[in-house]
UniProtKB/TrEMBL annotation, chain A:
One example of a Gene Ontology biological process annotation: transmembrane transport
Sequence intervals crossing the membrane: 7-29, 71-93, 113-134, 162-182, 216-239, 270-292
Primary localization class, coarse: membrane
PANTHER family: ABC TRANSPORTER PERMEASE PROTEIN, DIACETYLCHITOBIOSE UPTAKE SYSTEM PERMEASE PROTEIN NGCF
Domain ABC transmembrane type-1: start-end pairs: 66-291
Keywords annotated in UniProt: Cell membrane, Membrane, Transmembrane, Transmembrane helix, Transport
GO cellular component, one term: plasma membrane
Name of the protein in question: N-acetylglucosamine transport system permease protein
SUPFAM superfamilies associated with the record: MetI-like (SSF161098)
Species name: Catenuloplanes niger
Topological category with respect to the lipid bilayer: Multi-pass membrane protein
Automatic annotation (TrEMBL), chain B:
Membrane topology: Multi-pass membrane protein
InterPro entries: MetI-like, MetI-like_sf
GO cellular component, one term: plasma membrane
Protein name: N-acetylglucosamine transport system permease protein
Annotated ranges, domain ABC transmembrane type-1: 90-286
Protein location: Cell membrane
Length: 302, 300
């Protein structure tokens, strides 16, 4: 054992651990307690047990937010993964066999760079940007085209039936590039000779995708699903900046994050907001655990 | 895989004719090409459109969205930079992110190094304490965090925001770098110790340089993450004079929400372009590292 190890270890850990415990661990621990009080910021709150949660389950707005997370949870991963899988397949093996090596289509490198680009842009900024793109009259980027086709303008964000889907579209737009790169990495781990063998057996591109690529990519898909699911629970910045009336119109796009923010910083209902945070925590954890369990499959030996 | 044994089978009548296969390939490749091009267009078009709109007048913006600006109106940019305070927000973001990323990297690397290469009582417990932070939604902590920061007298201060950025970046940084430090060879460290290097010197002069590629990846990751942060500054920069301290995401979101029809739309688009452009430039330069950095984090 080298001398002076402990002073060194303690010296190196003291600052990071302190900052982390004070700003991350302590707030999480307090959140669980705060959720059981009726604290409103002025007087010290009283312990009220599970009352916040009973109230939460009777709160229509909470259920509505939950319903939106349900839609997000299904739509966001499904649409993103399907688009990203297709694009990644084209970029990696779509070009067919060149001298026995599977290649991507022409221009793969360029596409890979462009697709990933939205990933480095702030979601809050994208919210503001898409507000302009979605504008309901001829000044909106999309509705200007719609008008040229002689169709009625589409109220992307002001139509309660469309608003949530318009927001999901932006999230998909941003996320796809990341998963293209992720799936590409997964695909490059699949040995080339498996494709070659399939090719020689006369497999079509389609059957190659479903019988070779997809099963061998299962682990990566699972990771993608969990990540996108967690993102579906995290949606806040986009709703805050893009939706009409912060979660509107008429609450049609509100999410739990929005309600936590509103209850805490607009109504000062800190206890109630924390209870929502705890509910969100259990939802996220349950989702992650369930999806890992459900999608567990025999991994293919290579 | 024994390709040779497969060959004779493919030559038999079981395989579809080469012509059919070629046609199938062409159709799919054509469709695939079209889809790739359309998706690329969907990414690029909104960004180019924003850039063009940053030179337009209000009348042009509220006219047909697909007309070109009448002139190169740089005054939109000037107004956004000075009157709408985007310049100020931009510099605030640069200031906060450079300090918090530097802090994150220093503290994260120190913790990860010690946790990865020294055995001591409580090592695993501290490691899992850090890693568990990856699993929690930030929203859960939002309200108590607000009060922790307020009770420390750090609400509406950069010190508070920077410390919080560092704290929330630590789980991933420690997780990523610990694995990296573990993979470094022992021999160099041993040689340095034989030469009489202290633990601290060993870290700064031997280990940090050796871990450079890992440090770069995670630095970029943290810069992007902290630059794009919206929720934390929104919750922590409030109160008297908070508007002057706002970071870029916050400032622009606010311009947009408070903008009515008489608002300066050309200025808003100029502000958006200013927020987007630096990220595109950084991305263009580092795109390889950014892609590998962000995805290597995902494939745990």
């Amino acid at each position: 054992m080298r001398h002076g190890k402990y002073p060194f270890v303690i010296g190196f850990l003291a600052a990071p651990v302190t900052i982390y415990v004070v700003f991350v661990i302590a707030p999480y621990a307090q959140a669980f307690y705060m959720a059981l009080t009726n604290w409103r910021g002025l007087s010290p709150g009283q312990f009220i047990g599970l009352e916040n949660f009973t109230r939460l389950f009777q709160d229509d707005v909470f259920w509505k937010a939950l319903q939106h997370h349900g839609i997000l949870l299904l739509a966001l991963p499904l649409i993103t993964i399907i688009i990203a899988l297709f694009l990644a397949f084209m970029l990696n093996v779509g070009g067919g066999s060149q001298k026995g090596v599977m290649t991507g289509v022409w221009g793969s490198k360029f596409y890979r760079v462009v697709f990933f680009l939205p990933q480095v842009l702030a979601v809050a900024i994208l919210g503001v940007l898409f507000q302009a793109i979605y504008r309901p009259d001829g000044s909106g980027m999309i509705n200007s085209l719609v008008a040229k086709l002689g169709l009625e303008p589409i109220g992307f964000l002001i139509n309660p039936d469309l608003a949530l889907w318009s927001i999901i579209a932006v999230l998909v737009w941003q996320a796809v590039g990341f998963y293209v790169v992720l799936f590409s990495a997964g695909m490059s781990n699949i040995p080339k000779d498996i494709y070659e063998a399939a090719m020689l057996d006369g497999a079509t591109r389609m059957s190659m995708f479903f019988r070779v690529t997809l099963p061998l990519l299962w682990d990566t898909l699972q990771v993608a699903w969990v990540y996108l699911g967690i993102a579906a629970f995290d949606a806040f910045a986009i709703v805050q900046t893009l939706s009409v009336d912060q979660g509107g119109p008429d609450g049609s796009t509100t999410v739990i994050g929005m309600e936590i923010y509103r209850n805490a910083f607009t109504y000062s209902k800190y206890g109630y907001a924390s209870a929502m945070g705890v509910a969100l925590f259990f939802l996220t954890i349950t989702f992650a655990a369930l999806s890992l369990r459900v999608s567990r499959r025999e991994s293919v030996e290579m | 895989m024994a390709v040779d044994t497969v060959k004779p089978v493919s030559a038999s009548s079981a395989a579809p004719s080469p012509e059919k296969t070629r046609r199938e390939v062409n159709v799919l490749a054509g469709f695939g090409h079209a889809f790739l091009a359309v998706w690329a267009l969907l990414i690029i078009a909104p960004l180019v459109w924003t850039f063009l709109a940053s030179f337009k007048t209000n009348e042009e913006i509220f006219g047909d969205a697909w007309t070109m600006p009448g002139a190169l109106r740089l005054d939109n940019w000037a107004r956004a930079w000075s009157e709408a305070n985007v310049g100020q927000y931009f510099l605030n973001s640069v200031f906060v992110v450079s300090l918090s990323t530097a802090g994150t990297m220093l503290l994260g690397a120190m913790a990860a190094y010690v946790l990865a290469r020294y055995s001591f009582w409580g090592n695993r417990a501290i490691y899992y304490l850090f890693v568990s932070g990856l699993a929690f939604p930030v929203f859960l902590a939002l309200v108590p965090l607000f009060f922790v920061v307020r009770n420390l007298g750090l609400l509406n201060s950069y010190v508070g925001l920077i410390l919080v950025y560092i704290a929330y970046s630590l789980p991933f940084t420690v997780f990523f770098l610990a694995a990296f430090f573990k993979s470094l060879p022992n021999s160099v460290a041993e040689a340095a110790t034989m030469d009489g290097a202290s633990h601290t010197r060993l870290f700064f002069q031997v280990m940090m340089p050796m871990a450079r590629s890992g440090l770069i990846s995670i630095t970029i990751f943290n810069v992007i993450g902290q630059w794009n942060q919206y929720l934390l500054p929104l919750a922590l920069l409030q109160g008297e004079g908070a508007e002057e301290k706002w970071v870029l995401t916050q400032g622009i979101a606010n311009i947009s929400t408070s903008a009515g029809f008489d608002a300066d739309w050309g200025g808003l688009f100029a502000a958006l372009t200013m927020a987007i452009l630096p990220m595109i430039v950084i991305y263009a330069i580092f795109q390889r590292q950014i892609q590998s950095g962000l995805t290597s984090g995902a494939v745990k």
